[in-house]
C-alpha cells in the first residue's frame, strides 16, 4: 500500500531532505511552501503534488486539505523561525510572528488534515518541529523558545487526544545547516565554537533530522507517540565544558 504524506516546508532544508527519503521509499507526497520557484522545482523532481502559500494566511490550510485529497498517512510541519534577540529588543510583532509560524500554523495544519488522517488504513503519524531551546534555557531565545514550548504542549495534548488512530511526535533539533540558520552559519568562528558545545562535535545536517522524521512516519514507529525527541549531537543532555 502506498503511503501518502503532506510536508509543510517541503522545499526547506529538513522538509526537502525528508521528502527525498520518502520518495526513495515509494511514498506519495504533497509538498507545501511559500516560494513558487522552490516548491515547483522539488515537486517536479519528486513527482509530488504541491500547494503554494504562506502559513500566516489561514486560507492555506483548507486549500492544502483539498489539494492533497483522500486518505493521508502522515503530516510533517517543518516550518519555523529563528529570531534571536535580547529580550529587551523583542517586540510584540516578533512574539506574534514566531507563535503564529511555529505553533498556530502547526495546529491549523493538523486540524485541516485530521479528517484525511483519520481515513488512513494505517496508524497515521504527525511530526512537528520543536527545538533544543524549548527544554533548555538559551539567552536570546525568549520568543522562539516560547513558541517551540507551545509546540511541545500541542504535541503532548494531541498525542493523547488523537490516540490510537493518529500518533503525534516532535523532533527537537539543535543548530542544523539549513537556510533558516544562514545568519548564524555565516560566521565561521561562531559556528565552530557552537559545534564544540555538542558532545558529537558538529552541527546537524538536514539528513540527520530527516532520517528520524522518516522513521517516525513509518510503521516501524507504530508504538511511539507523545515524544519530543532531541536530535542534537548531545546538546540537550551532555555537558562538554566545565
Ligand atoms: N535549522 C535549524 O537550526 C533548526 C533548529 C531547531 C529547529 N528547527 C526547526 O526545524 C523546522 C524546519 O526548519 P529548516 O531548518 O528546514 O528551515 P528552512 O530550510 O528555512 O525551511 C523552511 C521551510 O518552511 C517554508 N516556510 C517558511 N516560512 C513559511 C511561511 N510563512 N509560510 C509557508 N511556508 C514557509 C519555507 O518555504 P520558502 O523557502 O518557500 O519560504 C521552507 O520550505 C522548523 O520548524 C525549524 O524551526 C530548525
Please characterize this protein's 3D structure.
The protein starts with a strand and ends in an 11-residue tail after the last strand. Helix 2 links the parallel strand 2 and strand 3. A seven-stranded parallel sheet has the order 3-2-1-4-5-6-7, sandwiched between helices. The model has no long low-confidence stretch (mean pLDDT 97). 43% of the residues lie in helices and 15% in strands. It has a single domain, classed as Rossmann fold (3-Layer(aba) Sandwich). By secondary structure, the chain is an alpha/beta fold. It binds NADP nicotinamide-adenine-dinucleotide phosphate. NADP nicotinamide-adenine-dinucleotide phosphate is lined by residues 9, 11-15, 33-35, 38, 54-56, 78-80, 101, 129, 131, 173, 175-176, 178-181.
Distance between the termini: 52 Å
Count up the helices.
8
Radius of gyration: 17 Å
Give the strand tally. Answer: 7
Summing up helix and strand content along with how strands pair, one would put the structural category as alpha/beta
Largest sheet: 7 strands, parallel
Strand arrangement, largest sheet?
3-2-1-4-5-6-7
Annotate the secondary structure layout.
Elements: E1 4-8, H1 13-24, E2 28-33, H2 36-45, E3 49-52, H3 60-68, E4 74-77, H4 92-118, E5 124-129, H5 142-162, E6 166-173, H6 182-185, H7 188-196, H8 206-217, E7 228-231
Parallel strand pairs: 1-2, 1-4, 2-3, 4-5, 5-6, 6-7
Helix pairs in contact: 1-8, 3-4, 4-5
Bound molecules: NADP nicotinamide-adenine-dinucleotide phosphate.
